Structure formats: C-alpha cells, structure tokens
Amino acid sequence: MPGRALSFGAMAGAYERFRPGYPVELPDVVMAYADRPVRTALEIGAGTGKATRLFARQGMAVTATEPDGAMLAELRKHVPASVRTVRAAFEDLEPGERYGLVYAAAALHWTNPEGRWSRVAALLEPGGVFASFAGPVRLADPAVEEAVRAARAPFLETDEIPSPDGTPPEHAMQWPGTELERSEWFTGVQQTVLERTVAMSAGDYVGLLSTISAYLVLPPSAQKQVFSRIAQVLPETVDITADITVHLARRRYE
After folding, report:
1. String of DSSP letters for 150-215
2. 3-state secondary structure 78-146
3. Is the residue at 218 inside a domain?
4. N or C: which end of the chain has fewer CB atoms below 10 A?
5. What's 65's domain CATH number?
6. Which CA distances in Å does 130 have to 49, 88, 248?
7. Is residue 111 part of a domain?
8. Could you tell me the pTM of the whole model?
C-alpha cells in the first residue's frame, strides 16, 4: 500500500470535519442497480465512515474495513453499533465470507492493482454488486482556482491523484470502470455522475486541503507555508464542485 494511503490517520478528526459527505441518493443508485435485496456489505477503506453511515441506514449488515487505526477509531464514533469494524487493508482480508455488495468510497485507488479484481470477486456472492465512488474536489470559480494553483506551485504541481491506469480525463469511461470492463470477473459495468456544488468558508477549504494526501506528505514547514499562501488568495467563502462518479459492476455467475 502506498505511503500516501497511510498518511491520513494524524488528520482523522479534520478528515471527518472538513471532507464533504456523500450524496444521500448514493445508496439508492447502488440499490437500483442491484435490483434485488442486499443483506450484507463489505466496505474497503472506510475512513471515518462517511459512506458507511449511508449504507448502514439501508438495513444491511455492513462490515467496514480500514487499515489506519486512528481513522477506524474516528469511524467508530459516528456509525451505529450494528456496523462491524475491522482494522485491515484490503489485501489482508481473508477469503471466506461472501457479501451481496462490496464497495469503496474514495479508497480503491490505494489498493494494490495486482490481483485486485480477483480479490474483489472472491468477496462477492455470484451476481453480487461491486461499487466504487469518488471524485476530486475543485474550486468552482476558475479565477480562484488559478490563484490557488499559483500559490501552491512552489510546493506542488497538482494536489490530485492521476488515474491509476492512465485513462485521460476526457475519456467517456473513467477508472475503475475501464479496468472492470476488461476484467473476466465482472459484467454490466455502469458509470453515473452525481453532480453537486458545496459552499464553504475559506478556513474550512484550507482545512479540507489539510486532509489531502499530497499535502500530508509534505514536510511540516512546507505545509504551513503552502496553506498560508493559499489562504491569502481565497475569498471569504468559496464554492467547490464535488461531483461523485459512481462505478457499478456485477460479479459474473460461476
């Protein structure tokens, strides 16, 4: 697992406070695709449980896995007691129990690509659903975005994570849909975008940046400088686009 994947624990409280949650309609999109009752679900890289809460409300038995102890401790503060929590990386999950749904919320890109889809398939019932949902958070105003880019430039060229398989942003099907379409284990790949704009204060936006891995791996002195520079160019309130791209696929029957 990349070092950046384990950089969030120190900021677990800020992650919970500043990261936008997921759209309330997200579970409905997944359940409509499943088109059958889903009784059990496994979450990969649950973080502080922002997605966990939504799926737990659907009445299914959710097992939330997370490799970082601090993130898992924060999750346990916010999810119902019915959620089973396990400290484990995806690669360390033992095959055995199978679930009706396996999903990852802004976490799949941290998993090891080697054998990724056979491992997911081993955790799913035949006909079960895999879901991945994520999306970058960007400033809606191009002028503000450019000012922030210039302020960040001495420290970071970009704070986004490139597509794991190199799919360009303009491609109709984005990752991981591109890999799912090529996988022998899955069929019925779908991609849906849930559009949304979120308003937040400049301070909260800087707080959000403090939870992004590109900044977390900078030396503390550089973090302080880049956040100060960014804060200086922000208006009092900013709008961010926080669209969520949902990828869905069904495990082939054996």
Report:
1. HHHTTT-S-SSPPPTT---TTSSSPTTHHHHHH-TTEEEEEEEEE--EEEEEHHHHHHHHTTSHHH
2. HCCCCCEEECCCHHHCCCCCCEEEEEEECCHHHCCCCCHHHHHHHHEEEEEEEEEEECCCEECCHHHHH
3. no
4. C
5. 3.40.50.150
6. 18, 19, 6
7. yes
8. 0.94
Domain of 15 in residue numbering reads as 3-135+161-195+243-251
In a domain, 148, yes or no: no
| Beta strands 124-134; 99-105: pairing state | parallel
pLDDT band at 116 (very low <50, low <70, confident <90, very high): very high
Tokens matching residue 76: 């346990």
Cis peptide, bond prior to residue 136, ω within 30 of zero: no
pLDDT digits over 7-44, tens only? 455 689 999 999 999 999 999 999 999 999 999 999 99
Write the single-letter amino acid at 12. A
Among 211, 229, 188, 147, CA closest to 17: 211
Burial class (CB in 10 A: 0-12, 13-18, 19+), 223: middle
Burial level of 210, CB count in 10 A (0-12/13-18/19+)?
Answer: middle
